[in-house]
Amino acid sequence: MAAISLKGITKNWGDAQAVKGIDFEVKSGDFTVLLGPSGCGKSTTLRLIAGLDTPSTGAIRIGERDVTNLPPAQRKIAMVFQSYALFPHLNVRDNILFGVRVRKEPAKHFDERLKRVADILGLSHLLDRRPGQLSGGQQQRVALGRAIIADAPVCLMDEPLSNLDAQLRQEMRREIRALQQQLNMTMIYVTHDQTEAMSMADQVILLRDGKIEQNAPPAELYAQPASVFAARFIGTPPMNILPLSNSAAGLVIEGSSGPVIHPHNVDEEWQLGVRPEHIHLVEQGIAATVDTIEYFGADTIVGCRVGQASLLMRVPGQLTLVPGDAVQLGWDRGSQYFFDRKSGLRRLPM
Ligand code: ADP
Ligand code: MG
To answer: Class for domain 2-226, per CATH?
Structure first.
């Protein structure tokens, strides 16, 4: 049985529709990420699940219960916000215990629960400090502690790491994932950061403009993107998209005379997608001119021009190339993707 299900959910703000009819299910114990660019409706969706807002249409179930019209307190969920929402005048202990006290849960287990949560999060030695005396990562852990101590089977997080610096963010990413698995929490986690989604999720729900673009595990999202939007949202740099045109021998990159990318012509206008990490320098392939070179240590991103189009290639290590060099590019047939230019949807070649 699904731990959480959304059916036909919409949310209107006046004339504007922030969520335009979404359906999905979350399995118990799964880590689900709502991913998408700013303004696509991630927070709105999360707030509807939490009960902080009410959907305009549709139904939300948590476990066996229809919670669509229940207040937040009756939904048995914990929530962590981007801002942490810690009380500055309360110490760590009181911040963590705030929720369970407000809910008037039996006090006798408080000490035990607090000890367990503080141990898990490495906060035991900080219980008397106030938020102002903690680092960003420690504050973030207190916010997590408050969610964990609730012992709610479902935990919702809205961009909980966006205030942290890059290195701490990576650490906390691993910590949250480990914690979620250890405590077998059902998690819905909102982020605009595809690396967070890829590294943490069992299931990624990619949102675009209030609708679900694709719902899949990370590996499937990467290998089988449903559209140009999904293909370019996952991966750095994003997938290259090149216009194709028909020729006597089949599809070629527009403006080039070959080689042939696909041996059949098509009635639609197709685009070719190739990920930067799948492009190699070869002896004989597609003629290109080097435009830009960015060296990152482990790898180098090379910008090339192919006819009228430009593309990025990621190669391991350092190259001796300079801008203006003529190169030949190649990739496996198996790493080519095709998309219909009008709809942006993926096409499977015959
Ligand atoms: P995300 O979290 O993906 O960045 P949001 O869910 O916050 O996006 O917002 C989706 C859309 O709904 C945006 O266009 C936003 O301006 C609008 N919106 C969100 N909350 C409100 C609100 N309380 N009143 C009016 N419009 C809102
Ligand atoms: Mg948001």
So the answer is: alpha beta
